[in-house]
Design goal:
Length: 80
């Protein structure tokens, strides 16, 4: 009877550890991506040059502000 309890406790502890690890990793990645956005101005400038466009600073600023607005909307949706 005691081996059954040991197995049950081990399975419950394993499931709790997996769930807790998932949520901690998720929070860490969300914080990391918020502090270090995946696309910055230099990357955007290179992408535009590769597409054959001559990037002006005004256009790059517009695209960066559009991307930040979209990310703000997504954050607000997640909070609701």
């Amino acid at each position: 009877m005691s081996t059954i309890w040991v197995i049950v406790i081990a399975v419950v502890a394993l499931l709790a550890g997996v769930a807790l690890g998932f949520f901690i990793a998720r929070q860490y990645m969300m914080k990391y991506l918020e502090e270090n956005p995946p696309i910055n101005e230099d990357m955007l400038r290179m992408m535009m040059m590769q597409m054959g466009q001559k990037p002006s600073q005004k256009r790059i600023n517009q695209m960066m502000s559009q991307m930040s607005k979209v990310s703000e909307k997504e954050k607000k949706k997640k909070k609701k």
